[in-house]
Amino acid sequence: MTDDKITIDDVAKALGISKTTVSRAISGKGRVGNSTRAKVMEFIEKHNYRPNVMARALAQQRTFNIGVVWPCDYNAVDLPFFQRCMIGMSEITSSFGYDIVVSLIAGDDLSSLKRIIENHKVDGVVLTRTMVNDTPAMYLKESGVPFVAIGKTDDPDIITVDNDNLGACKELTSILLAKGLRKLALIGGSTNHIITRTRYEGFVDAFESMGLEVDQNLVYLDIENNIKIGGIIKTLLKKNIDGVICMDDSIAGEVISRCRDEHIRIPDDLRVASFYNSSLLESTVPSVTSLNFNDRNLGAEAARTLLAIIAGENAQSKMLKNYEVILKESTK
Amino acid sequence: MTDDKITIDDVAKALGISKTTVSRAISGKGRVGNSTRAKVMEFIEKHNYRPNVMARALAQQRTFNIGVVWPCDYNAVDLPFFQRCMIGMSEITSSFGYDIVVSLIAGDDLSSLKRIIENHKVDGVVLTRTMVNDTPAMYLKESGVPFVAIGKTDDPDIITVDNDNLGACKELTSILLAKGLRKLALIGGSTNHIITRTRYEGFVDAFESMGLEVDQNLVYLDIENNIKIGGIIKTLLKKNIDGVICMDDSIAGEVISRCRDEHIRIPDDLRVASFYNSSLLESTVPSVTSLNFNDRNLGAEAARTLLAIIAGENAQSKMLKNYEVILKESTK
DNA sequence: TTGTAGGCGTTATCAG
DNA sequence: CTGATAACGCCTACAA
């Protein structure tokens, strides 16, 4: 039962045939007699034979692993986005017999990424976000390893998979504008992240397509620490605003809390919406209007694309259009 | 600069010595002349030579990967716990030249775990939680692969690393009892997870050590879905309770929201505390009394232990004592 | 259809 | 201290 270390050679000898034939029977490459194949399959099934992946990796220079680059800045640590993406990726990779090697990168330290690339531990990489000065992307590009980035990028050589953040943010903003709101504030994270810029663009587009102009005094970007939000809210209130759009739900949660401190009623005194929704917002009161994306599906699509590239097919960048605008109490 | 496919043989030939010597110079095993070693080191530095891990893995039957089993039930998906643990593990494994292969397992489907084990893709495994019917643990034990579990277990053969959940939960409960609260409710998740049982034990211990008895009518376990919490709160309010202890902050957040619905003031009408704290609770109002553990450190310790086992040292189970009881507004 | 032999890049063994 | 040579387990021309 626990014949653990049985090799292809053992199989061959036991069956009185050559390793080559066994190999072919298993891989399906090359012609093998039906009866022979059946014999082999039955035997390996019975004895629970598994080809040694390391040996195969060495022989055909493939690892059947993909790398996933996972940012772990202070902010990203608690976001469920990456976890959800990974689940989607895992579903796809699993079904292709691939496994996932994670590479956590903090700040500019690419050493863990370099290690898995230089050591040939992966056949390709998924980058889970894009940045303005994207050192990981540049490194990967230079290294020649197949990779896919989740998020937008300027570089046409890089294959990306992304949600339609621009369209979604524009739509949500438009809805608020259509309600007659005009003095809308925007609070968002690091402008080093492309997604922050895209969300901002969507916000601006909504204004422009209605012939309105964004008041830059109401835009707060690079707010990487929720501590600052209390002050921002106080400042904003003096400016007599109609509503606040938060780029993610962590910011939204903080905004709601600080409003409560200031005895600001939502939505009566102020409307609040978020460009990203996760369970963080689930139990807030009032419930928050937000955008809902399918992160899992995004990850799955990224993995699918990467595997296609690895298989030699020429894949193209994709934009997933399915998102939901969830209108809740906070903007009534 | 981009001499990517340079092998040990290339190094040997370029230096006019044998592969063996180069190998020894790099690994440090076996005696090599100092001048020779220096030459080798200089050369590989300059030409950026990296030993092929796959070849090494094949030769010495080691992969320099560890597997991390990551549950992805509906509940676990958004918990930051696993992510934080993994960051801690990654810090340690990285410093030993190891990488992390994740195995997401949903429900009883062990296929991804089996794949990485049977394919010899990892040298050991970290199990990130323990269960009552722990099929992953049993499988690993049977397979003979070195592994460490995060969490408690009955099986003395299994090496574990865990926080002192029992002591922490007992302490927090004791503090509330010491404030004179007596009718304390408890809401928690699946009793299939050992941690739920441990937390419950801590709760009970606190009562017993004060000569009090737990009112089982106020204990709600196996609440795996926050939707039920609204009803529970309503029921509890009729029972005229003093406070609610939630096993994690997702539950706590929900409890607070539902209390607000019912116009219950916290802490005036009801005290609330949580056995686990994450950023989910960060911006709630009122701030919630809770236990604070260092998940990252927990992961690091687990990785350290696993690597020790892999290295052949005989490691022992560890309990990390450092946690914080954070007293906040919700129990004033 | 099947088998033989060589190679993938390292490490381990055993001589020198 | 150093070097051939044989594993490690699998794949793939090339032959038969």
Describe this structure in words.
Two copies of one chain form a homodimer. Chain A is α/β, with parallel strands linked by helices and 332 residues long. Chain A has three domains: 8-60, Orthogonal Bundle (434 Repressor (Amino-terminal Domain)); 65-162 and 295-320, Rossmann fold (3-Layer(aba) Sandwich); 165-293 and 326-331, Response regulator (Rossmann fold, 3-Layer(aba) Sandwich). Helices cover 42% and strands 16% of the residues of chain A. Chain A is built from twelve helices and twelve strands. In chain A, the strands form two sheets. In chain A, strands 2-1-3-4-5-11 form a six-stranded parallel sheet, sandwiched between helices. In chain A, α1 crosses α2 (19-27), α2 (19-27) packs across α3 and α5 (80-95) packs across α12 (295-310). β2 (99-105) of chain A pairs antiparallel with β2 of chain B. The structure holds a DNA duplex (16 and 16 nucleotides). Chains A, B: InterPro entries: HTH_LacI, LacI/GalR-like_sensor, Lambda_DNA-bd_dom_sf, Peripla_BP_I. Chains A, B: GO terms for molecular function: DNA-binding transcription factor activity; transcription cis-regulatory region binding.
H and E order of chain A: HHHHEHEHEHEEHEHEHEHEEHEE
**Gross CATH architecture of the largest domain in chain A:** 3-Layer(aba) Sandwich
The biggest sheet of chain A amounts to: 6 strands, parallel
For this structure, the CATH topology of the largest domain in chain A is Rossmann fold
Largest interface: A-B, 58 and 58 residues
Q: Name the helicity range of chain A.
A: 40-55%
Low-confidence stretches of chain A: none
Oligomeric composition of the shown chains:
homodimer
Proportion of residues in extended strands of chain A: 15-25%
Rg of chain A, Cα atoms, Å: 26 Å
CATH class of the largest domain in chain A: Alpha Beta
Number of helices of chain A: 12
Q: Kindly report the name of the CATH homologous superfamily of the largest domain in chain A.
A: Response regulator
Domain HTH lacI-type (chains A, B): 6-60
Protein name (chains A, B): Transcriptional regulator LacI family
Pfam family, one (chains A, B): LacI
GO molecular function (chains A, B): DNA-binding transcription factor activity; transcription cis-regulatory region binding
